[in-house]
Each structure stands twice: as C-alpha cells, then as structure tokens.
Design a protein that fits this description.
23% of the residues lie in helices and 22% in strands. With 115 residues, the protein is an alpha/beta fold. Strands 2-1-3-4 form a four-stranded parallel beta sheet.
Length: 115
C-alpha cells in the first residue's frame, strides 16, 4: 500500500469460461488493503450480451473506460493476455502486473496479437 490515504487499486481480470465471480474467494483477503475492481470480459458475467472483438487492440479500447487511471493488474489465463497487452499499450496506467496461468497469446502468429 502506498503512503497515500486511499488504498492502491487492484484490478482482477478473469479468463475464458468464467467471469469476475471467479475471484470471489479472494475478496475478503484483498479488500482490507486494496480498492478491488472486478472486470468482466465481453461475453462473460455482467457483459454477457457483448460481442468479443476481433483483436486485442479492440478489446483494450472496449475495456479502457472500465479501467482506472492507474492500478495493479492481475490477469488469470486469458485475462493475463489482456493485462500484458494493456501494459504494453498504456504503461503509465499500470503500476504492476501479476499473472496466473497466463500466456502472451493463444496461437502463434507473426505479430503475436492473435487469439
């Protein structure tokens, strides 16, 4: 936690097949120390009706309004791919990253920006 009066913000980003409720067991441990934000990727949880975009850049553009100005990000599985891409595009918004069972991409491609 920083020396500021407000807690640091931690953003939790889930992977495919689950939604932000997957992080529920963590909340009691994290909330005393951090402002915890849960993000549902398009097509999951609270964003079930949204369509999955064609690229990581489009996904980041779609999610950017939901992300705080600066935070620590945790990405689980596909959420890790989202978080690392966010950090690459907007490094000033990312105070730190931690990944769980994450890869930089799901399939090999020339530009590594593929699902």
């Amino acid at each position: 936690m920083s020396n500021l009066q407000q807690p640091d913000t931690v953003v939790l980003v889930h992977g495919f097949g689950v939604d932000s409720r997957h992080f529920s067991p963590w909340l009691n441990s994290l909330q005393p120390y951090f402002d915890v934000r849960l993000i549902d990727l398009p097509g999951f949880g609270s964003t079930f009706s949204q369509t999955w975009p064609d690229s990581l850049d489009q996904l980041i553009d779609m999610l950017l309004p939901a992300f705080p100005a600066r935070a620590i990000y945790c990405g689980w599985s596909a959420g890790g791919m989202v978080v690392t891409h966010l950090a690459r595009r907007y490094p000033a918004r990312v105070a730190g990253v931690f990944l769980l069972a994450a890869n930089p991409a799901f399939v090999a491609s020339a530009d590594n920006d593929s699902w």
